[in-house]
Amino acid sequence: MEDRKPSEEFSLVQVAEGIHVWLAPNGSWGMSNAGLILGEDESMIVDTMFDLNLTRSMLNAMATIEPRISKSVDALLNTHANGDHCHGNELVPTERVIASEETANEMDELPPAVLFAMVERFKGDSSALGQYIRHAFGAFDFSNITMRLPTETFTNEMSLTIGNVEVELYEVGPAHTRGDVIAYIPSRGVVFTGDILFNHETPIMWSGPVDNWIAACELIASFDAITIPGHGPVTDSTGAIEMRDYWVMLRDQTKERFDGGMSVLDAARDIDLGPYAGWGGPERVFLNVNSLYREFGSDRVIEDVMDLFAEMGAIWVAGNGLPADQSN
Ligand SMILES: [Zn+2]
């Protein structure tokens, strides 16, 4: 896994006039999509990458479309606080870094140095947790990242004009994280959803409540626009409806098992994912069921994030038929 070089596999794709997507080759851990909005003489970038090399590749590709990107960008939006959407902020030549207030609050809670230390710690570790940490994070370089935090925050809604292009920002979190934002460009019929949408990838609910996420999917679908998920290929309103239906299914199936007194692990194993079983990262269902149990008021949820990764790692190792050292 450490030999993977994701920077060589991304591509810049135009989806509408002045709207480009920096599209990851797959939607797995850290493989996030970003965007470029070009208005008359102005530009805005939506999200940066998980590490500096990936962000440099993105900016270089964007500069081939619009050379002034390398000197000046009018605004950068971070859709949420996860590192795969903001670790590269320091490389964007802009004065204006926009995020929701909650995203700004959350952004410095998990410093890149912690991820760097974690990847170092699990190098060569053959436990399920070690293998899973390398699978999720081993391809990225978390060294020497200085977090650049938002300079401008908002709550609920904000609109801004990039040249002649109006961009509407809607805070739809807490859902995936505490402060998720989507960006809708009405004149181009495009919406950037951040990690409210994982297209044919299992989503991850760090925060919840799930009903906020369901409502956000319905808002996205109501735009009937070209829809850019945070992870996975470009879609349209059908991607938002699928994501809503996943959460309705998981919420209801989890509630039944919670009411029946099952443990989180037993519930996660017992739920039939049906049409969603083929989505990437199915082991994340464990984290989602854990978050739903917390929402339902369970006192038996796992709070430690490494314990969550260990459980997901065990499911992932078993699902992929990999041997694992039981010592960890
Ligand atoms: Zn992400």
Features:
328 residues, 34% helix, Metallo-beta-lactamase, Chain A, five-stranded mixed beta sheet, binds zinc ion, seven-stranded mixed beta sheet, alpha/beta, 12 strands
- Strand arrangement in the largest pleated sheet: 1-2-3-4-5-6-7
Helix content: 25-40%
Total number of domains: 1
**Span from first to last CA?**
20 Å
Number of strands: 12
- Give, in order, the helices and strands: EEEEHEEHHHEEEEEHEHHHH
By DSSP (H or I, 4+ residues per run), the number of helices equals 9
The hetero compounds bound to this protein are: zinc ion
**Fold-level CATH name:** Metallo-beta-lactamase, Chain A
- Average pLDDT figure: 94
Find the CATH superfamily.
Ribonuclease Z/Hydroxyacylglutathione hydrolase-like
Taking all Cα atoms into account, the compactness measure Rg is 19 Å
Structural class: alpha/beta
How would you describe the overall organization of this protein?
- This protein has 328 residues and is an alpha/beta fold.
- The protein has a single domain, classed as Ribonuclease Z/Hydroxyacylglutathione hydrolase-like (Metallo-beta-lactamase, Chain A), CATH 3.60.15.10.
- It has nine helices and twelve strands.
- It has a seven-stranded mixed β-sheet.
- Helix 5 packs antiparallel against helix 6, helix 6 packs across helix 8 and helix 7 crosses helix 8.
- The longest helix is centred in the C-terminal third of the chain and has 23 residues.
- The protein is globular.
- The two termini are 20 Å apart.
- The model has no long low-confidence stretch (mean pLDDT 94).
- The structure holds zinc ion.
